[in-house]
Every structure is written in structure tokens, then in C-alpha cells.
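User: Sequence in, structure out. Go.
Assistant: Echoing your sequence, followed by the C-alpha cells.
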Amino acid sequence: MKRYVYVFFCLLFVLAALTGCAGKDGHTVDLSYTVSVQKDTYDALVKKGIHPFSTDPTEIRIADGKQMIFFTQTLSDIGFSEAEAKLKAITLYSKEGTPSVLMKSTELKQSSGLFYSSCTMKAVTNKLDSDTWSLTIMIGMPGSIAQIQGGAVTDKSATFELSNLTAENEIAAYSESNNVAAVLIIIGILLAVGGGFVWIIKRKQD
């Protein structure tokens, strides 16, 4: 009988250990960001042979009384590592053509297991010399967004509008979800295993 009790508790230990996994990949996020720059800065850069966006601008329109150039990139169901790399790669320029990496630090991580999962996104921007740029980041995270800093929750996504990039901006979001289905499955497995042990023990006693 001691052997069966030992096996039962070993099973419980393994199940508990599986609930504390952490890392960057496993879950996915939806990432969209829009970079805007005043048209005169954009034109000056193009004349210098510098194309600040990877493709042609998405839109040209008037914003706050100024003609602005907009570039939007939308990525769906990408891994945490890829989303983090995309944000770290955003580079903006002064009118003279000096490049500046926008993000001072960026971190996306998850903590997940059989019973729960949580995701955290943190980023801090560098201070830019030019005030002609602005940035909007929208990130859809697994579960429900429970906490947000420097932004707002819109359509189950965290949205950060950074209009003053000459100052350091700190943004963060935290989402969480409970794996109810997994909990029910584990309970069912434990009940089945427990019932099996009871049946074996009673059979040996008969």
C-alpha cells in the first residue's frame, strides 16, 4: 500500500511542477504600431537618401494643424521574442539624418502552467532630440488586461499613444487568464487515479 501512496504523491508533485513554467514563447500577441513624422522632416530625410520606413508611408494627412506622414505595421499571432525584437528595431531620425533607437528597454514575458497564465509587457523609450515624431503602440495580449501604465485598454488591447518622444516614456501592461478547462481535466485525472488506487487496494484486501 505504501508504494501506491508514494506513486500518487509523485503524480501530484509532477502536476504542481508543471504550473510554474516561464519564458517568452508559447503564447502569441497581436502587435500594431504607427509611427508618424512631420512631412517636412520626412522630405528632408528622403532628400538625403534616408528612407525612415521599410516601405512607403501608409497615410498622409493633417494632424494638429501639421501635415504628417504615417507608417503602420500590423502583425498577428507572433511570438513574444518576435514582438520584442520588432519594438527594439524601431529607429527614428533627426531632420539632419541622425538615427536614434527609440526603445531604451523592452521586455515581453509570460508565466504559464496548467492552471493559469499571465503576460507582462514593459518598455521605456529613449529621449529624442527631435519633436517631429510620435508613436502609437497597440498590443493584444492573451487573457484579460488587468493592469496598464501609460496607456488605455481598447477592444481588449493595450494602447499607448506617445506624442512627446523628447521625454522618456515608461509603458507597461499585464494580462492574466485562468485555464478552467485544464483544471477540470486535471481534477478528472486525479479522481480517476485515486479511484484506481482504491479499487486496487480493495481488490488486494479481498
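User: And one key feature?
Assistant: Residues 21-181 form one domain.
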